[in-house]
Each structure stands twice: as structure tokens, then as C-alpha cells.
Amino acid sequence: MKFMETNVKIVYSLVSGGGWVRKILVVEDELMLRVLLGSVLRQKFECEVVCAAGGNEAFQLAQNEPFDIVISDYAMPEGTGLDLLWALRTAKIDTPLIFYTGSSPESLVPHFSPPVRAIVAKPEIKILLSCVRESLLQTDPLVCSL
User: Fold this and answer.
1) Is residue 3 helix, strand or coil?
2) In what order do the strands lie in the sheet with 48-52?
3) 76: number of Cβ within 10 Å
4) Per residue of the chain (146 residues), what is the pLDDT tens digit?
5) Who's near 8: CB < 8 A, 6+ residues apart?
6) What domains are defined for the chain?
7) Which of 79, 86, 91, 113 could form a disulfide with 55 if both were Cys (CB 3.0 to 4.6 A apart)?
């Protein structure tokens, strides 16, 4: 495993024999949860995980590299997960998004349309992992690479 932390992002990737690797963007302002989610997702799905501390950073990353899925907190200091969703939609970045939030999930239900795939209340990690698995299975890497 390779681990790199900079001022702007944490990257976990599986060092393996090559091939196509899925990429997940985790947007979480709490450092410990960001690191934990990155580690769990990498181990569970053998994928590359890029972590961002907020919506602005996540949006910059999503503009510069493709992700198979975005997992975003809702309440963050520099803007909400909805702000990130609107920015992605405006930029025509239709990466599937899962909200993983400690805020009231019910308040996000009106926004539950593509690319939003799920709204999961913290700390339901098993439900989150199930939603990630479903989203990844719905994305065919051969179709995505065309």
C-alpha cells in the first residue's frame, strides 16, 4: 500500500500488478473519519481513494481526474455537500455521489436524483459500504473508458 498526505489531499492506492483500478473521492472535513474511510474503502474494494477536506478541494480534484464515485459529508466548514453537488452538476460532472452525513438525512431527500445514489446517516458504515458496492457494480469500466 502506498500512503501520501499533502496539504490538499490524502491518497491511498493499492500497489499491485497493474490493470484498471477504481477511484473513489471521499469528502470529509474530520481528519480521523477521512483517514478511516479511506483505509476501509481501499481494503474493502481494492481501489484508489483520494480524500478531500472540503467541497472546494473536492471540486478541483473532480475537475482534474475522473472518479467512479464521490462520498461526501453534508455539513463542512467551507460549504455543504449540496454546494459540491451543484458545482459538479454545473460543470457537467455526473460522477455518482453518496451523501454520508451526520446531519438530518431527511433534509437531503428532495435532492435524491441522479447523480445522487444514496443518503447514509453516520455512523452506519455497513450501509455505506453496501451502497458503495452497489454503485461500483453499476459502473462498467469498459463503458467508462470509452
Assistant:
1) strand
2) 2-5, 10-13, 48-52, 23-27, 69-72, 97-101, 116-121
3) 21
4) 333 343 334 444 444 445 567 899 999 999 999 999 999 999 999 899 999 999 999 999 999 999 999 999 988 888 898 899 999 999 999 899 998 988 766 666 666 667 888 888 888 889 899 889 988 887 443 332 22
5) 52, 53, 57
6) 2-144 (3.40.50.2300)
7) 79
* Residue 78: other Cβ atoms inside 10 A: 12
Give the position of cell 482534474: 64
Q: Pairing relation of β-strands 10-13 and 116-121? A: unpaired
Distance from C-alpha of 141 to C-alpha of 146, rounded to nearest angstrom: 9
The amino acid that residue 32 corresponds to is M
